[in-house]
Amino acid sequence: MKFSKIIPVIGFTALVLLLAFVFSSVMDKRFSSGTIYPHYSTQRTDPLGAQAIFDSFDRLDSISASRNFEVLTRIKTLDEDTALVLLGLPRQSVDDMRAKADSPVIKAVKEKGARLVITIDPEIVNADYTPQKSSEEKDWFEKRREIIQKRNKEQVEREAAKKKEKKGKDGKKSEDKKKKGAENDGDSKLKAEKEPDDEKKDKKDPIKDSIDEFFEYDEEELEKEAEEKFGSSLFNQWDIDFAYVSDYKHPDGGWEPRVPANAAKMGTPTLIPNWHSQFRFEIDASAKADWKVIAIVDKKPVVVERKLGKGTVVLTTDSFFASNESLHNGASAEFLLWLVGDKSKIVFDETLHGTTVRTGSMKLVKRYRLHGLFIGLFVLVFMWAWRSATSLAPGSEAIDGGIIGSGGTVSGEETSSGLVQLLRRSIPSKDLLTRCAEIWKGGKNQTIKPQEEAELSAILNQNRNDSKSLDTVSAYRRITDLLKKKV
């Protein structure tokens, strides 16, 4: 191959390598910064990430930290020495947290004694990610959303109709008052004042009641369907919910939580980091004995703990204390160690943040070590592209001049010319006469005397060994003169 044909191949290869290097560099910077992960992910290194707390726990001699990328409904690594931490759960996703009785997480807590820690995203900045749902869950939530939208639409239409009806009645009353005079108007007011309040309360709107019953029936049916498929809401199972906070002002540096006076005797932390979340818990009266309040803000619990079978559950309304920024400013080691309990293995769930392991082709390649197959395919594609661009056959003047194509076909010549070109490519010139003589001898009915054969061999040897003294044309003429009687 000529140098002029090698230059494009070298240039193409260099361009591919350059693009691969730039792509890998960009992806490495993006993954190393962790900005592609949601807030409070342990793979994120910026202030709103939580890689620092993961590394801190992992460096302790008595604790090993790991990340979970398996779907929680199939996790099998939880035992009595494990604390599963769901860090930074979005508030809007709490109501969607459901679990069946045979959930591996709940079974590990109840039967094996694992510890489950759930912290809520305080929404200090807007998050652009919520945990993914399965197709069945999406369908169910879509149905529920449609029912709520229809109900709201019906309520708006009813309110508008009532206002319109009331406006018409008020206008008619004002005209009647002008006609009847002030006396009759006073009597009507007195009558209205005498009307008992109980009678007003007993008045019902049959249309409103029928619509409410329709929507309530649909919601009950959907809830039954959801409980059969996904289980009931965890917060409903635990009789806890979020307290309604109407107005609040976020203080600089966050709220300062209070702890019970006997916190030290209870084995709970006595120092809680400042709270940056506006969310508060509301414990049902029937479950107050089950829950232990660890910290309070504005007379409402923000950190709670309860026994669940052999294990424990911890809920917090904030996650900022676990962020890289919070640990940089000063971590509350006592609170963080209490959070995971006496467990020696801490598992930070990353499926919550959308990072899951999927069984795909690349996983199979790594498992069965098929890297050589991919390298072979790459080489095959490269050779095919090279073959399509230029011929892999040795170069010749006929190919370079366009007389013979890259596929070996003869272009613009007769059969004899093509045969001559083929002989030139296949047989060296010094062996041409020898080869022709061998073919002639192999023909049928070809006989030669021993004396003539000796002379023929001498001519061929002289032409092959010393072509200057006897060139091919002269040797050919001598052979024809020798064998002219045989030809």
Explain briefly what this protein structure is:
This protein has 487 residues and is α/β, with parallel strands linked by helices.
How is this structure best described in words?
- The chain starts with a helix and ends in a 5-residue tail after the last helix.
- The chain has three domains: 33-132 and 235-353, no CATH class; 135-232, no CATH class; 427-482, no CATH class.
- The strands form three sheets. The chain has a seven-stranded mixed β-sheet.
- Strand 8 and strand 9 form a beta hairpin.
- It has helices at residues 3-33, 51-58, 91-94, 104-112, 135-194, 197-202, 206-230, 234-237, 263-266, 324-330, 333-340, 361-368, 371-389, 397-400, 415-426, 432-441, 450-465, 472-482, and strands at 64-68, 82-89, 98-99, 115-120, 232-233, 240-242, 281-283, 291-297, 300-308, 311-316, 345-349.
- Helix 5 (135-194) runs antiparallel to helix 7.
- The protein is built from 18 helices and eleven strands.
- It is an alpha/beta fold and 487 residues long.
- The model is unreliable at 188-195 and 197-203 (pLDDT under 50).
Layout of helices and strands:
Layout: H1 3-33, H2 51-58, E1 64-68, E2 82-89, H3 91-94, E3 98-99, H4 104-112, E4 115-120, H5 135-194, H6 197-202, H7 206-230, E5 232-233, H8 234-237, E6 240-242, H9 263-266, E7 281-283, E8 291-297, E9 300-308, E10 311-316, H10 324-330, H11 333-340, E11 345-349, H12 361-368, H13 371-389, H14 397-400, H15 415-426, H16 432-441, H17 450-465, H18 472-482
Parallel strand pairs: 1-11, 2-4, 2-11, 4-10
Antiparallel strand pairs: 3-5, 6-7, 8-9, 9-10
